[in-house]
Specification:
The protein is α+β, with helices and mostly antiparallel strands. It is 29% helix and 23% strand. Strand 8 and strand 9 form a beta hairpin. Helix 14 packs across helix 16 and helix 14 crosses helix 17. It is globular and about 70 Å long. The N terminus is likely disordered.
Amino acid sequence: VVALAAVGLARAGAGTAASTTTTSSNSTPPGRTFIDLVSELPTNLDETATPDTASAQLLPSWSSELVRPAPATPGPNARLPADGAVVPYLATSWQRDANGSYTFELRRGVRGDSGNPFTAADVSWSLERAVARSPVAPFLFALANIDTRHPVTILDSHRVRINVTAPSPFTLSVLASYDSAIYDSVLYRSHASASDPWAQQWGSTHSASFGPYWVAWYLPRREIALGANPGFWRQPYYTRVLIRQVSNPDTRLAYVLAGTATHTRDLNWGDFQTAVNNGGSDGVTASILQTGPGVLAWHLNIAHGPLANPLVRQALKLGVNRIEIANAIYASFDTPSALTIPAAFGQRQPATFDPQQSRSLMRAAGYPDGVTIDIYTNDTQAGGNAATLLGFLRQQMLQIDVFLRITYVNNNDQLLALEQQGALESTIDTATPLMGGAGFLLEEDANTALDPVSPAAQEGYRNASLQPLLDQLRGSSTAPAADTLTQQAATIIDSDSPTVNFVAIPVQNVTRANVTGYAAYTMPVTYYEYLHPTR
């Protein structure tokens, strides 16, 4: 048994950090406890920290927003909601004003675990904090046309207006993001200082939301324990949630099969297949919660060299055997992808494979003897499947006389920095939209004017016809207009092929069979408050 230093909150108090000694094991505690085993925990619990996958998957479980993303029925063919599809959360209702601003009625009788009541002042302070310190909020608020100089007008203690400079189809989606989380401002301010006016240091190891859970303790790289918030407006079935980092996927599966853990995901696909085939005898269900919206993709720097030729890019797209790659990586649990919009949003995804046409395009492009292309990646960026993917891709590209020169950059931050500098000929990345539907994904990926570090900016991609469409989409006020602009923009990007999509990534759900309440979301998250035993 290993002794660990725990960072914890004093229940219903000022939240002073305390160093204690505790133990971490994989035995199941008594009572209504849910144990989730994850491959990685966030290194920082504050939404103003550098974004990472672990934070995006876990922080929403105990954060609180005005609205939440609308859920979809889980399954491999789940159709995720469109942009702006949200459900009430801290706000019970809202009305869109003529200029695109939103007036929200706030939920009454809600308290944080500190005992502090939720009011309009918390909304105002929290969104001002996001504008001031969040690395992601400036992009999101710009996309939603939220007025960053005056984001919130307090109308009374339980009514606010979110101010915009123009209508946008993305405003509600942005307000559903954990980057727009609403905090217990009184508790946060009690931990602020002249050098840290937004209490980011305290927030890195603590929580202060009005959500269903609070962070009772945080053991970096080991465990997060969540306790139920008595001031929440519902009573979750699970009064305690233990989120434990267990890097080895075999070990995670073994604990769930043994009944000493409740849930896991991100297994290797051989283990997942084992869980599908044999989990029933151990009381475990293994299923695909959703396919996408994440996509494993080949990003091409089209600023110079052979990849600047659109015929070469079309040849690469036609020369990829997506079904072969899909079967090799995901054991047939995936969806091949060819277009810009992931299949989960309802766009048909043709898995075209035509090496003969691909070779003809290479000759027409002036490369009858083929080309050599540099690829940079690492196992993290390739979703843990770099060796398998690159092995198959190398053989497929040889069929069309494209020779791949592969470089592994083991430091993920270094690889991202090189990508943002536009210094790499091509990369393989796992791309997941921050939120929302197909229109949001297009803006995030391709609007270089709004996001100078977008994939399109990194790829050196520009299209004179595309930017006006994205600008119109950002300011469109009706769903039909937004849908039309989305399709037009997607068609342009697909014909230019700055990115070759391989497969839409399936999201695993391995759980004790008697637990239900899981759903599909545009950002895959396990909301523990909705889970309960089968009734």
